[in-house]
Write a structure and sequence with these properties.
Length: 452
């Protein structure tokens, strides 16, 4: 089908907006990107702190073997970052480090939690697989719902809660159980959902044989190299990127978009791709239906606190990241120089240590606790800290929690589409952002606006 070239305005130059701009320009449309900050990348950037190069939070890119970002790379990128395999996930508790127990067999031997709890949880896991095969699980079932009758010890409950916070940013009472199946399902490219009782057996097989996170990688040079690869793949005869341009409103006529306003004037548009917080969309646009506004504004964000440490000698293993399960607060620890030594001066280690910030938490108290936890886990580290840099950021623009739907790509306004991490209940971070862009492209294909 031949398609007409349209004037597109993409609002926001985070990875969702930039991937959308790249794909639409390569599909032949004229694209203007407006970004309110002076730099592109949103929360997917790297920058210098003295001689160290830190990312906006530690980033490991998931599902790169055939997942959504890989599909976009294959279809639209001219240059591709170098991806270094993530390696092992380690669980560090107060006594020692252990590899993450990916399989049921390894979980059976995972001794930070009591043996009786392990047996009970293995029974729960296999029962959950059958409930799923019978389609008895949906996004309204939380992790807590399936274990509420179990008699688990406080340390087991704390481990489960930490894993939920790691996967969704919220605790087990709000984490949908389906979040834990999502990573298993993505390889079934042609299936939108479980369709076959044999999936029960496949699920169990996966739980028995899974080798670990083999499809996860760190982009050499820092997460900014992903943004740089997108920017250098842009067909600049069709794309204009305006930084320090804040969108202040979206103009419509007869229920369809006509343009985007910024402080420097209005940019006419046949199509608008919106990537800032969807909960703020109603402030830019009048006349949205009330129930739609309620859906958008009910979404919640979760903040993350990251501490970057530059160390003058290595304190962390060389092949992966660590999950600290019984520290207060629990943390995810990624030594990025293990993937790329050039991120720090020769012989130094750069490590990002991230934790969730619940709304009721006082940042200064969590900072103090986090530093104390680091010194407790790694005695003597304080004498080797050459650089300390803190970040408070929002990893996903909406948390995937039970009972909340994220809005679809299509909106009630003609020509206005949503992309970003608050438009899709799948995976997290860059991977979720990439899914949202694939959803945009699928939607536009169905409407005959793009052809390939
Ligand atoms: C601590 C931390 C750890 C993370 N770890 C990982 C990880 O391991 N793996 C992973 O894949 N991801 C990770 N992420 C998340 C990932 O970086 C983000 O989810 C992703 O980059 C979000 O992209 P986005 O484009 O949807 O949103 P954003 O990056 O938020 O982009 C939105 C853009 O819109 C712009 N904007 C907003 N309002 C306006 C306006 N009015 N006018 C113009 N522009 C506007 C903003 O300035 C911004 O540039 C992590 C993030 C953090 C903070």
């Amino acid at each position: 089908m031949d398609t007409m070239s349209q004037n597109v305005v993409v609002i926001g130059a985070g990875i969702s907006g930039l991937l959308s701009a790249l794909a639409l320009a390569k599909e032949g449309h004229h694209v203007t990107v407006v970004e309110r900050e002076s730099e592109v990348g949103g929360v997917c950037r790297s920058y210098r702190v003295g001689p160290y190069k830190v990312d906006t939070g530690p980033h490991i890119i998931t599902r790169l073997n055939g997942g959504p970002l890989r599909r976009l790379i294959d279809d639209y990128f001219d240059t591709v970052p170098v991806f270094v395999p993530h390696g092992e996930y380690y669980v560090r508790s107060s006594d020692k480090m252990r590899p993450f127990p990916w399989t049921l067999k390894k979980f059976a031997l995972f001794d930070p939690i009591p043996k009786s709890d392990r047996i009970e949880l293995i029974q729960t896991i296999t029962s959950v697989f059958s409930q799923r095969a019978l389609r008895m699980l949906n996004d309204d079932v939380s992790v807590q719902d399936v274990i509420h009758n179990a008699t688990l010890s406080p340390q087991t409950l704390s481990f489960i809660d930490t894993m939920c916070r790691f996967m969704t940013g919220t605790g087990m009472e709000r984490t949908p159980l389906t979040r834990f199946f999502d990573s298993q399902d993505y390889k079934n490219k042609n299936k939108k959902e479980v369709q076959d009782p044999l999936d029960y057996l496949n699920g169990i097989k996966n739980a028995i044989t899974k080798k670990g996170a083999l499809d996860q990688y760190y982009p050499k040079g820092g997460v900014q190299t992903l943004i740089n690869a997108i920017m250098s793949s842009m067909p600049y005869d069709l794309v204009e990127i305006r930084t320090s341009h804040e969108m202040t409103g979206i103009e419509t006529r007869d229920g369809a978009v006509t343009g985007v306003t910024t402080k420097s004037g209005t940019i006419p548009a046949d199509m608008v791709i919106y990537s800032p917080l969807v909960s703020e969309l109603p402030t830019y646009l009048d006349g949205l239906p009330g129930d739609y506004v309620d859906e958008l504004t009910s979404l919640e964000t979760v903040r993350a606190l990251t501490l970057w440490l530059g160390l003058d000698e290595p304190f962390f293993a060389t092949d992966g990241s660590e999950i600290w399960i019984d520290s207060d607060p629990p943390c995810w620890v990624v030594p990025t120089t293990n993937y790329d030594a050039a991120l720090a001066p020769r012989g130094h280690q750069l490590v990002g240590i991230a934790t969730n910030l619940r709304p009721d938490m006082d940042i200064e108290t969590v900072k103090r606790d986090l530093l104390a936890a680091i010194k407790d886990r790694l005695p003597g580290i304080e004498d080797h800290i050459m650089m300390e840099h803190w970040q408070v950021l929002v990893p996903e623009k909406a948390a995937w929690v039970v009972g909340r739907r994220m809005p679809a790509c299509e909106t009630p306004v003609g020509g206005l589409y949503l992309v970003g991490t608050d438009t899709m209940c799948k995976s997290m971070g860059v991977t979720r952002a990439s899914y949202s862009v694939l959803e945009l492209l699928d939607t536009l294909k169905r409407k005959g606006i793009i052809s390939s």
